[in-house]
């Protein structure tokens, strides 16, 4: 197994953990924080998908899934399907409590968006060689960030938030 396959396996795990976390939660549970000021399951899933979409689109040189018209729904973008009171460029970094609570979406929409992002990420990873991971993609850091480091960062962030969503879902389903 090469490094791109390890990254793919990790993204597959994110998708699977999120699917299990969303399974059985009501729309109200998805937007209920465990404590005031904490992230909701809906926000966690939306955010991890937005980060993956944003970062992979950037390194791949493509448009984000979020703002690209897709099949079905008359070619409506995911941003319009969610219809959040947020700028389409938002991915959730630095959100305050009110912004977190503004991310309201049913499980099928959250899952559909993550699946679409996962499909795009998988297609991108399948075209990479291990040597591609050494390409510098961001010179604003010291040392400059390579593709491998950026994708590992996305995977780490997504796994962390998927675990948080699974934990919160477990607590909410037992209340």
Task: Give a nutshell description of this structure.
The protein is an all-alpha fold and about 180 residues long. About 60% of the residues lie in helices and about 5% in strands.
Helix content: 55-70%
- Please report the total strand number as a whole number: 2
The Cα radius of gyration reads 16 Å
* Structural classification: mainly alpha
Characterize the biggest β-sheet. Answer: 2 strands, antiparallel
- Poorly predicted sequence stretches spanning 5 or more consecutive residues: none
Which strand-content bin applies to the residues?
A: under 5%
SSE pattern, N- to C-terminal: HHHHHHEEH
The best one-word shape is: globular
What would you note in describing this structure?
By secondary structure, the protein is an all-alpha fold. Helices cover 59% and strands 3% of the residues. It contains seven helices and two strands. Strands 1-2 form a two-stranded antiparallel ribbon. Helix 1 (3-22) runs parallel beside helix 7 (147-174), helix 3 runs parallel beside helix 6 and helix 3 packs antiparallel against helix 7. The longest helix has 28 residues, at 147-174.
What is the strand and helix layout of this fold?
Layout: H1 3-22, H2 27-30, H3 41-60, H4 78-82, H5 97-102, H6 107-126, E1 136-138, E2 145-146, H7 147-174
Antiparallel strand pairs: 1-2
């Amino acid at each position: 197994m090469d490094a791109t396959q390890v990254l793919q396996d990790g993204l597959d795990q994110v998708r699977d953990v999120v699917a299990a976390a969303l399974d059985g939660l009501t729309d109200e549970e998805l937007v209920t924080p465990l404590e005031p000021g904490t992230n909701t399951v809906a926000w966690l899933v939306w955010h991890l998908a937005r980060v993956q979409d944003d970062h992979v689109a950037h390194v791949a040189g493509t448009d984000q899934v979020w703002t690209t018209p897709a099949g079905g729904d008359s070619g409506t973008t995911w941003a319009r399907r969610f219809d959040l009171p947020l700028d389409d460029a938002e991915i959730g970094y630095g959100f305050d409590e009110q912004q977190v609570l503004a991310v309201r979406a049913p499980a099928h929409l959250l899952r559909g968006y993550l699946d679409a992002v996962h499909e795009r990420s998988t297609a991108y990873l399948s075209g990479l060689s291990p040597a591609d991971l050494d390409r510098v993609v961001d010179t604003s850091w010291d040392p400059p960030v390579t593709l491998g480091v950026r994708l590992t960062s996305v995977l780490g962030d997504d796994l962390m938030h998927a675990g948080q969503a699974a934990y919160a879902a477990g607590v909410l389903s037992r209340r």
